Recover the amino acids of this structure.
């Protein structure tokens, strides 16, 4: 399973890279806004820093404007993945990108039917948002199970990129279901490493080590 870091914060990306846990990065307009930097500055920094795929989202809703932005974003580097919304115009742009060899991440997916359309449109990645489904009392991980099954049934090449991850169990469940990628904030990445018995065990080893004669 690949781990992407869901952030536009370069320091967080560096931290995850240093641990060998950053196979790629996903951003969105809200994450870019949080940094206080311009989109261009963010793109320049992240695309050169990260060897893996970097998802950059279009910021318009019409097909023509999406295609203009998609071509501009793709020109920043071979590792750029253009993020498109799961709308009819976004699917049309996805199909054009597919024909032009531009990698895509179709975002804001909340149903299996939407995921089926994205795969047929030639998406490189589909981003189902599990946390936002949980927020409205719907089991987000059921959507991942459905998409993995549908894609396997028809051998679609679109990769399932589990997004809107809120806690470590989302990642574990996604791995058990066979999702290709999880994108997560650094906080969840660090939580994955945590276990109280590890902390207690380490403390005991450190204490006992002090008793060993030098
Ligand atoms: C995915 O690419 C999105 O950027 C992200 O996972 C959304 O997460 P949120 O629901 O926590 O905002």
């Amino acid at each position: 399973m690949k781990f992407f870091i869901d952030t536009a914060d370069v320091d967080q990306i560096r931290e995850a890279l240093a641990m060998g846990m950053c196979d790629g990065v996903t951003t969105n307009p809200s994450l870019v806004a949080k940094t206080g930097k311009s989109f261009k500055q963010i793109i320049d920094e992240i695309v050169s820093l990260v060897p893996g795929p970097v998802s950059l989202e279009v910021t318009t809703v019409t097909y023509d404007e999406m295609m203009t932005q998609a071509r501009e974003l793709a020109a920043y580097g071979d590792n750029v993945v253009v993020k498109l919304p799961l709308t009819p115009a976004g699917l049309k742009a996805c199909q054009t990108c597919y024909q032009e060899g531009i990698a895509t991440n179709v975002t804001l997916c909340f149903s299996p039917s939407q995921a089926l359309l994205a795969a047929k449109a030639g998406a490189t990645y589909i981003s189902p948002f599990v946390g936002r489904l949980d927020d409205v009392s719907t089991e987000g991980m059921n959507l991942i199970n459905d998409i993995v099954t549908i894609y396997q049934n028809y051998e679609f090449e679109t990769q399932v990129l589990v997004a809107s991850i809120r806690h470590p169990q989302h990642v574990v469940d996604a791995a058990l279901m066979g999702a290709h990628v999880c994108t997560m904030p650094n906080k969840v990445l660090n939580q994955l490493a945590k276990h109280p018995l590890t902390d207690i065990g380490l403390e005991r080893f450190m204490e006992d080590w002090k008793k060993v004669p030098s």
